[in-house]
Amino acid sequence: MVKRPLKIAICGFGRFAERRIIPALEKTSKIELVAVIDRGSRASKLPKNILRFKSFDEMLKSTLIDCVYIATPNYLHAPQAIECLKNGLHVLCEKPMAINKSDCSQMIDAAIKFNVQLSIGHMLRFSPAIIKVRDLMNIGTLGKINSLELFFNYDIKFTERSWAKSKNNSGGGVLMDAGVHCIDTIQFLLDSDIKLKNVKMFNIDNNKIEQGIKSTFDAGDTHCLIEVHSNKEYFSCLVINSENGKLKLENFASTDSKGLINFTSIRENVKNQSFTIDVANTYLNQIENFANTITSGKTDLKSAEQAEKAIELIETIYAKQNLSST
């Protein structure tokens, strides 16, 4: 058994780490932030006792850390995760897992070979609202699921993510950035492989970066749809049509407000239900799950394996649209 608290370093200390990961780490006693790779001024706001590594290689040589949170640009996820895993460091890697399936496979192979934990930052798996929806599905409230639809709009900001304008650095546009969350949510809720049916993309620039996608899939015998746009005002909604009625989860992608669940029944013997669920601890839940898995001594690669399938599906979509980077 690994002793607590685990010592973690953040690789890629940008706006995301500051706004999402630091607050989660401050709430838990299971993992302690001890270091960051500091190449800018943002880390100057941290307490003086936090180590500042000047490079990734310097961090790898440290004997003071147990695990690493990788929040660097997408193209660095795989090479940095693999090096960490080879050095016996457990890894929580931000989404997307990598920019192609081959890299994902190498990450999983390294985790298995060196017997360390590899988790992927699909935080919606730890959203209390999403978990509540899955619970309602599992206890039979909804009955057979006929269709699952996810709608997600937001306005991407390139000011602090200029690398995201490059296909080689980002792996893609809105599908790789936010669509991957929708695909992973389908996998989490239905626990089934997803097959592409149709896809349409919108506002593709000269760098092969799309700002909108509408795509349909089959997950078992459930029809699925995702529609995601990165040039619109924020909106997210999950809709499930089932034999017992219709469930709607507003703000399904939120991690700092409330998830609003309404289930409208079409059966006399099944009651309508509604829930308002606080999702503010979504990132905390993810961090603590990572810690608990490590301290249990048993690696769990299911989320990584499903993340790999999501990237494989995205590669298929880009190939179909002639947007492959190769």
Task: Walk me through this protein's architecture.
This protein has 326 residues and is an alpha/beta fold. It folds into 2 domains: 6-121, NAD(P)-binding Rossmann-like Domain (Rossmann fold, 3-Layer(aba) Sandwich); 124-280, 2-Layer Sandwich (Dihydrodipicolinate Reductase, domain 2), CATH 3.30.360.10. It contains 9 helices and 14 strands. The strands form 2 sheets. The protein has an 8-stranded mixed sheet, with helices on one face. A 6-stranded parallel sheet has the order 3-2-1-4-5-6, sandwiched between helices. Strand 4 (67-70), helix 3 (74-86) and strand 5 (90-94) form a beta-alpha-beta unit. Helix 1 packs across helix 8 (282-296) and helix 7 (174-190) packs across helix 9. The longest helix is centred in the C-terminal third of the chain and has 19 residues, at 302-320. It starts with 5 loop residues before the first strand and ends in a 6-residue tail after the last helix.
Précis, in short:
The protein has nine helices and 14 strands. The protein is of the alpha/beta class.
Show the helix and strand layout.
Layout: E1 6-11, H1 15-27, E2 31-37, E3 51-53, H2 56-60, E4 67-70, H3 74-86, E5 90-94, H4 101-114, E6 118-121, H5 128-138, E7 145-155, H6 167-170, H7 174-190, E8 194-204, E9 210-219, E10 222-229, E11 231-242, E12 245-250, E13 258-265, E14 273-278, H8 282-296, H9 302-320
Parallel strand pairs: 1-2, 1-4, 2-3, 4-5, 5-6, 7-10
Antiparallel strand pairs: 7-11, 8-9, 9-10, 11-12, 12-13, 13-14
Helix pairs in contact: 1-8, 3-4, 4-9, 5-7, 7-9
